[in-house]
Design brief:
Layout lengths: L2 H45 L1 E8 L4 E7 L7 H17 L8 E4 L2 E7 L3 E7 L5 H17 L1 H5 L11 H9 L7 E3 L11 H17 L4 H12 L3 H13 L3 E3 L2
Antiparallel strand pairs: 1-2, 1-5, 3-4, 4-5, 6-7
Amino acid sequence: MNPLIWIVSIAFVAICVLLIIYFKKYYGRAIRRVNAAHFKSQIGDLSNLSHILVIYKQSGIAIFSQTFGYEYLDPTLLSGLLEAMNIMGTHVGAKGKLRRLEYEQYQILIREARWVRGVVMCRERPSAFLEDSLTVFIKRFENKFAGTLMEWTGDITKFQTAVELVDDCFNTALIYPMTVMWEDQNPEDLSDIELKVLEIAKEACLEKESFLIPDLLKILTNRLKKSPNRLLSIIYDLHRRQYFISLT
């Protein structure tokens, strides 16, 4: 065979090997950074979440509600307020639908479907993630309970399983208490820093039986002296691989 062909072939193989190494090391690292940034953003967004309500439009009654945090909210009062504002808007000839309200630091998002109205109450200005999540949630709620909504008789217990939709659409598992699903098995599958993160998380669980991701991040930053972004990337990866799971 022509020596030149040999040289070209070897060079081509070498380039391919280098490209594979590059993409596995650097591109994979970049993807993890992007995912960790998204992970961090979602946790921040969910920390902003205060209440989720679903209101039956025909009667203005709240048929489902879920609270995040310690603020008490009477769903009847809020649903009555929104209903009154919609009626007032109709009487004064306002065009369009009520989509957002602001009260001091609180912001209320509203999205409507055919039978129901979805409401998200936030402690600060909501992100696009929360707005999109509400839109998806209210559509899926109506699809899931379409038969019940068309002939609803007043029994709100039929809508309690909507908690699963909330978890799915808003990814709320990220702000629930977590635990460690690892008993020192297969340490060879983990890097040194991943092992340290798991050991510290297990210590936290021994004290309080569970941990919140923001609290764990503070502990890890203090003890491991690594950047929060790098540690969050590791937490994200361990959560994705089911080493950390939500207790809800």
